[in-house]
Write a sequence for this structure.
């Protein structure tokens, strides 16, 4: 798995974590108040720190807890771990929680929170094997939480547990675990996480169970094209189009593969159909720009690339190709502008 794939996962996970823990934070705050109802200074500090966390000020909570000067206390370490998690300092959260979560009362709200946060933090930093049992334990009491299922499914993929991943994704999306749809969903997630070989296996099993399942042939074709098996990819994509002639993405994929083979006119035809079905997707315009550049039609190529940028202003490839086109046309100032934009977008993921 590449660094960019890890980054994409983390962004999605962080959005999910807040939903999964919303009820736990409030309940744990009440539990803390009950357990520490001794009227001492530490009770007040713990309550104030929890409030700061719930207000979205975890760094202030960390400073307050550290100032307490009792890092060895289980309740302080627990809340410090939670605060570090909310501050996106996942390694420090793991350090705090890993040494105390087993000391918390079995089945208590504090233990549940600590186990969940520890599992999520391990997942975010890429310690997938360590994350799995913790996320599984959380799922026992949060079985209906879709976000948690999504994260656990990813962890199963990362640890090469394809069957378990498929079962979790099936439950998350409400399909039967051994169905063609479940194999398709698992494959889609595996592709996003760049586990292409596992995804290919799932897609073939999906097609075996349902040869007319929409999207399965297109994804298999996508994998084949990615690996340079263009004839195979084209054949699979054409099968998808037979099953779903309104699939704009399939026509875009077919056009891209044909253009790669130098079949400019056939590729342009497929790409035009993609645009007719979905005129707001930038990819076919970019490939059309390449094709018209190769065919020596700069004005048409400029129109296609300009339209791509209109729909996706931060697409580096579109700006770079337009810069190349302007350079060929002798419009050097325009070329310089587009190359500068492309360079500025260089560091952006997926561009």
């Amino acid at each position: 798995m590449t660094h960019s794939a890890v980054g994409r996962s983390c962004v999605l996970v962080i959005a999910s974590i807040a939903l999964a823990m919303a009820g736990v934070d409030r309940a744990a705050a009440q539990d803390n108040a009950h357990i520490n109802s001794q009227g001492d200074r530490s009770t007040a500090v713990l309550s104030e720190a929890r409030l700061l966390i719930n207000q979205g000020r975890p760094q202030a909570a960390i400073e307050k807890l550290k100032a307490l000067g009792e890092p060895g206390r289980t309740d302080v370490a627990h809340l410090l771990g939670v605060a570090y998690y909310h501050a996106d300092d996942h390694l420090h959260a793991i350090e705090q929680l890993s040494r105390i979560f087993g000391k918390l009362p079995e089945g208590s709200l504090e233990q549940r929170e600590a186990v969940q946060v520890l599992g999520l933090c391990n997942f975010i930093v890429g310690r997938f094997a360590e994350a799995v049992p913790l996320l599984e334990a959380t799922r026992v009491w949060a079985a209906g939480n879709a976000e948690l299922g999504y994260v656990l499914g990813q962890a199963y993929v990362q640890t090469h547990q394809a069957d378990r991943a498929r079962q979790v994704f099936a439950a998350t999306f409400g399909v039967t675990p051994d169905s063609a749809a479940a194999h398709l969903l698992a494959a889609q997630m595996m592709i996003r996480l760049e586990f292409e070989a596992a995804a290919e296996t799932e897609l073939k099993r999906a097609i075996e169970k349902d040869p007319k399942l929409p999207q399965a042939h297109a994804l298999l074709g996508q994998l084949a094209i990615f690996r340079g098996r263009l004839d195979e990819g084209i054949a699979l994509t054409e099968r998808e189009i037979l099953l779903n002639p309104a699939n704009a993405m399939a026509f875009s994929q077919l056009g891209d593969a044909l253009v790669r083979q130098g079949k400019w006119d056939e590729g342009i035809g497929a790409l035009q159909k993609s645009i007719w079905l979905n005129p707001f997707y930038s990819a076919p315009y970019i490939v059309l720009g390449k094709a018209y550049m190769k065919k020596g039609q700069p004005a048409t190529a400029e129109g296609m690339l300009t339209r791509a940028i209109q729909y996706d202003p931060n697409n580096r490839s579109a700006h770079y190709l337009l810069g190349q086109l302007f350079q060929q046309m002798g419009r050097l100032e325009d070329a310089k502008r587009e190359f500068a934009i492309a360079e500025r977008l260089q560091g952006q993921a997926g561009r």
About this structure: Residues 8 and 349 are 9 Å apart (CA to CA). Residues 3-35 form the longest helix (33 residues). The radius of gyration is 26 Å. DSSP finds 19 helices and no strands in the chain.
